[in-house]
Design goal:
mainly alpha; globular; 0% strand; 333 residues; single chain
Length: 333
Amino acid sequence: MIRALKGKNTWVFSALIVFTILTVIVSITYGPATITRADIFQCVMYECASPMHDMVIWQIRIPRVLVGLVAGMGLACAGAILQNVTRNPLADPYLFGIISGAGLGATIATFTLGDQQSLALPLAAFLGALFSVVIVFGIATLLRNMNHLLLTGVAVSFMLGSISHFILYLGDPFATNRVIFWLMGSLARVEMFHFYLIGAMVLLTLLTIFALHRQIDALLLGDESAASLGVNIDKLRLILLALCAAVTATIVAYCGGIGFVGLMIPHIVRQLVGVTTMPLIIGSALVGGCFLVWVDVAARSAFSNVEIPIGIITSAIGSIFFLAIMYRTRKTG
């Protein structure tokens, strides 16, 4: 890891680390409640001036910023891993059907478990996301062609999405509205417990990638070259896809459908630090975390008394980014 931060990338990573620290500190000052920066500093460093400040700072704003940071880190890292493993610049957890699988799991839990769905919703979404990845990887394995992995993911995403929409169409309108709002993604209901859970999953992902980074770099040379270097290609791909599914499903289960972060951030970081795994993953984690924190700030600050689901903002930006990549690929390809 230290070697990845040295050389020509030293200044880039130094700037990203400073920007990440500033992002966490400054973003806490934004919110609908009027609290001065002096009050926030006193609350964080010493003791809050009032119980209201204590509740807003420690129970709402800080958990929200920290969960946004680790969720952005996890989604960006998952996208970077998928793009390197599949050697496809358009690979993204959202396009692999993970969001649709989580949505189907949440939909089924909402309409079958009644009042208990609030506890079962994250678990059902997690299982649905893993289910979609198993289908995608299983079909791609049967086809014996990993180049079809992304197309299979898009097809499975549409299939699971259509099942969810059919259930929602037949269901109770109140429950339907709740599921639809959850699918649009939001950090409005997160707590510190979610930060610990998602943060632990992201840390596990980073440690695994750091341990396997040489094998992943070998995959960038092609399957035949990687195999000649002693890399077990199928086993490595299975481990990495399962890891991407687990971290993405954990984030989606508690934050809802947040798409295209894993598509956009690795592309931006790749222009700064190159394609090798270690600098790409570290850079994607830092930029992805900051990106989602500021998207959440914009979502709750753009309009008074109205909060925009962050999945709407990331999808709007991501769709334009996706078209730009396709246009550039057409020109160069």
